[in-house]
Amino acid sequence: MARVRTRELPLIDELAERFARLLPAERESVLVHGDYRLDNVVLGDDGTVRAVLDWELATTGDPLADVGLMIVYWDELGRAAANPVPCSRVVTELPGFPTTAELAEAYAAASGRGIGALPLWVAFGYWKLAIIIEGVYRRWLNDPANGAGAGAFGPAVPRLAESALRALEQGA
User: Fold this and answer.
1) Whole-angstrom distance, CA of residue 37 vs CA of residue 39
2) What are the helix (H) ranges across the chain?
3) pTM of the model
């Protein structure tokens, strides 16, 4: 975080300390995409996932890390008015898209894994996204020609950190 820091963000630092204490010991290590979200998949006409794109953040770790981040993106898309880059139509609000609770239950059913720790991973996902967005914002500050509209991302970082804190407190 230090190399992309643009300002003092005490909540980001506080959350880093809390996650260092709270994240569970690795029980299972799987391939984690690291940026699993709707716009990183190719869907077939029947709605099934045909391909997963953008593996640059892939690592190994707890499988709930990808589920948590996917829920963060799903929730963020559902908050069109609060999005750093507003859109006119939010895909996750269209008929036929599941709620985040339904996503979590579908994951649990398909994987056979428990999702009791999912709130922690959702909170971690918000924190991780805040840091990624801060990096985008830093690159824009260094070179405003590097990403039209990226200046709008600055206010999103504290909002995402607050969302991480809320998710952490709700899951506790």
Assistant:
1) 6
2) 10-22, 64-77, 100-111, 118-142, 156-171
3) 0.85
